[in-house]
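Support request, priority: normal
Reporter: lab tech (M.K.)
Component: structure prediction queue

Hi team, I submitted a job for Transmembrane protein from Arabidopsis thaliana x Arabidopsis arenosa yesterday, and the status page still shows it as pending. I've pasted the exact input below so you can check whether something in the sequence is tripping the parser. The sequence length should be 120 residues. Please let me know if I need to resubmit or if it's stuck on your end.
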Amino acid sequence: MKTSMSIVVVVFFATFLAISAAPPLNPQEACIRRNINRSQPPSSSLEQKTSIFDSLRDNLCRDMARAVMFYVRITGKFPAHYVKAMCNVFGNDEKKVKEYVMEKWLGGSKLLSNVSCAFH
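Reply from support: The job had stalled in the queue. We restarted it manually and it finished. Here are the results:
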């Protein structure tokens, strides 16, 4: 009985440590990843099932993108937290970040001078 109880306790603590050690998911990083995945060719399945959570995520990502767009329109540069999120998504590869900005953002060439992963 003691052996099985100790195994349960060890498994519980190992699971707890693994979950607490995982980095928290930044919602902006998740939206950037969804945006990248959305640009990939569709899967071979004919039926595209969308859940209520997918539509909520889409609305959240749309609102976040709108907020970033307004910030860019007012200041002429990306917010620092958005640049950090892009750098995290692309593994601090500045070339990939700049390609993403050129591909996804209207007027991306004007924004490139303010995009650097070195400071984040």
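Residues 52-75 form the longest helix (24 residues). Residues 23-37+52-120 form one domain. Let us know if anything else looks off. Ticket resolved.
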